[in-house]
Amino acid sequence: MSEQKTTSRRDFVMGAATGIGAGAIGAMGLYSYTPAAYKHFVSLPRGNREEFGAVRSVKITNISETSWFDNATLMGDIQAAGGLLVNQYTIGWPPFGNGKGIARGSFESGLESIRKMIPGNLEEAWALQSKLGLHPENPGGFSCLIEVESLDGTLHKYLLDSGWSFDWMDKAFKREKIDQMLAAHEIEALFLSHEHWDHFWGLPVTVKYDDRIPIYTHNGFYKEGLQYIAATGHKGKLFVQDKPIERIIPGMVVVKYDVPIINRVFGETSLAFNIKDKGLLSISGCNHQGILQCTSFLRNNLKYDNDKFYGIYGGLHISPFEDWDPKYDDLVISLKQYEFDKIGCNHCTGVITAHKFVERGYPVVKGTARFRSKTADYLGNGDTIVF
C-alpha cells in the first residue's frame, strides 16, 4: 500500500474518448469492452500465477443493489450536466448539491453544507441536501456484506461499498443488522470498489456506526474522494492499494484494475477468493474493467483449486441502463466458456442481461425481488448467496 499518486493517467478525456464516440449514454456499458479501456491493464504470463491459499466458504448478503431508482432521471441529469466526462462532484446530486442547479454543484460547497452533521446527524444532513441537491429521491446505493469462513473455521466479515443515499443506506443497514455488526466491530474492513456516487458517497453511514473500520481504496481516488473520507470523521486506517494484487487473508485478495470510468472516476478494485475444492470466486462492485477482461486477468495471474472459475457475484456492467446493443449478446454467449457453477448478478448487470442469462440456461441464482429490486432473475435487496 502507498500514498495516492497523481500521474498523467488522470487525464480522463484522453482515456475515455473512444468510449463516447457512439453517443453519450449508449456507450456507458460498452466502454468497458473497448481497446481504450483494455490498454490500461498489465498482463502477466500464466506461468507466473500467484498462490494465495484457500477459504472454506463465502456468504454474500445483498444489502442494496439498487443504486438509483429511475434510469431516465439519472441519464437525463448526466446529459444535462454535459455528458460522460463531466466531474461527478459538479453534477449537483446530493450530498454535493449547493442549490444552484444542474452542472453547478461543487464538492467544496456541498460538503461544507453538511460538514458539521456527518456522520452523527445523517437525517438532518440528507434533509438539507434534499433541498439543495438534484432529484434526492432517486439515489439508493450498492453495498454487500461478505462473510468468509477460513479453513480453520474462523469467520471474517467485510463490507464491499457503502452506497449513496444516507437515508436509503441507513435503512438498508438496519434492515440487515449491519449497523449492529459495525457497532460491535464485527466487520473487519470496508472495501470501496471505486469512487462513483452510488458506491462511495454513502460512506458516512458506515462511519456513523464504526469510525475506526479499516478502509481499502484504489490509488486512483481523486483528492476530493480522499478529503471526503477524512471529512466523514473516519479515524481508522486507510489503505491505498497501488499494486495489482493485495492479499487480505489466506484465500482472499483484492485485485486492482486501472481503467478510466465515466464522470471522471479512475480505477476499480474487485475481490477474489479461492474456495477450497471448488475454484475461484470473483466479487465486484461494478466491474467497469469488463467481465471478460476481469476473468482473463484472474485466470492469468492467480492459482486456484481445480483451475476452475467457480462463481461470480455483483455488478457485471453489461447493460446498466438497459441500453441493449447486439454486441452485448456476444458477451453473454462468451461467458459460457468459463463454465461457472453459480452466477449471482445484479445492479449494473442490467435486467435485460439477467433475463438473457436465464434464457440461456446459465446457473443464475435468482432472488425475491424485494425492497424495490426490479426482478427475481437476479439477487435483489436482502437476498443471499453462498459459495
UniProtKB/TrEMBL annotation:
The keyword Cell cycle does not apply. GO terms for molecular function: hydrolase activity; transferase activity. The keyword Transmembrane helix applies. InterPro entries: Metallo-beta-lactamase_dom (IPR052926), RibonucZ/Hydroxyglut_hydro (IPR036866), TAT_signal (IPR006311), TAT_signal_bac_arc (IPR019546). Keywords: Hydrolase, Membrane, Transmembrane, Transmembrane helix. The chain crosses the membrane at residues 12-33. This is MBL fold metallo-hydrolase.
